[in-house]
Amino acid sequence: MKIAILPGDGIGTEIMAEAVKVLAVLDLKFETETALVGGAAYEAHGHPLPEGTLNLAKAADAVLFGAVGDWKYDKLERQFRPEQAILGLRKHLGLFANFRPAICYEQLTHASSLKPELVAGLDILIIRELTGDIYFGQPRGRRVAIDGHFPGAEEAFDTMRYSKPEIERIAHVAFQAARRRNKKVTSVDKANVLETFQFWKDVVTEVHAQYPDVALEHMYVDNAAMQLVKAPKAFDVVVTGNMFGDILSDEAAMLTGSIGMLPSASLDKSNKGLYEPSHGSAPDIAGKGVANPLATILSAAMMLRYTLNQPEAADRIESAVKAVLSAGLRTGDIWSEGTQRVGTRAMGDAVVAALSGKTITT
Ligand code: IPM
Ligand code: MN
């Protein structure tokens, strides 16, 4: 088994170092190879996703990804911007199924901006379609408008589209995931306005016929955004398109206390996958050693579970994270009165200590 390690930009390198350290103490049999991606790759090779990095990712069984992006690249032509690296990896590796679990750890109930009783015990799974929708739809671009409100004016456009097989495969993923959980799927759409999402709703309903043991509800995206902060525990599995999933998963992340806690898995049809924290490269705190490495460490656990077939090792990491939180260690994003503020490295060291059966002291 081979894991491609792509730390990326900003806090990416710092959080990745901790995840790699955690994987190393598990003493599992796999090789790792590291490569540049994002802005770092652009600086070195003139492209955010160089051939070598893409080939390494394709050849590997799994990819562990940090984060990409920095404001300083905002002026570059789109194809050279760091974000194109992650979009390109998703597309080229066929990673259409994005799992973003939002779990509120008991120890962090008070770190959420919502009332503790609303989030205590929260465990929902957002499944975001990741290779279609308005993110990848063609045509897109800029032109002079020939119609609309201002004919003759400069305009920009993107294309929202989904094919039936694209919706079917993500619907199957969602229903199957729900079977392993609380057997409820909420499909989020905007069928009241968009043709693409009326089609989405119709196709999901059709696929549902094969899963009579799973409950299906449909919800408009605006209402879903509201329900997520009103009664988040009413959800089990949420399945939605690429753009709605992007937005709702950030919202769901905050329910857990911090986006710094949220791992993710992006899988292809044979469960090969890319694993990354749901947060970005946070250039504002990069290099300061204060970023929360737990989302990346938990992403490594997801990698062990979904792609590398090592569920016990995944359980061990997740238990170690809980032990560290129980011991009161907190990075700045989850810190509250009465807990101990630690940096990135100390947090990683504490997870390693917990894995080695040592007591964690604050
Ligand atoms: C995410 C990110 C990406 C996305 C960006 C960096 C392209 O926000 O993984 O959610 O929009 O998908
Ligand atoms: Mn996002």
TrEMBL record:
Residues the record marks as site: Important for catalysis: Y135, K190
Cofactor note: Binds 1 Mg(2+) or Mn(2+) ion per subunit.
Annotated residues for binding of substrate: R90, R100, R128, D222
Gene3D superfamilies, per database record: Isopropylmalate Dehydrogenase
EC number: 1.1.1.85
Compartmental location: Cytoplasm
Pfam families tied to this protein: Iso_dh
SMART domains, A to Z: Iso_dh
Alphabetical list of HAMAP family matching this protein: LeuB_type1 (MF_01033)
Stored NCBIfam families: leuB
Protein name: 3-isopropylmalate dehydrogenase
Organism: Pseudaquabacterium pictum
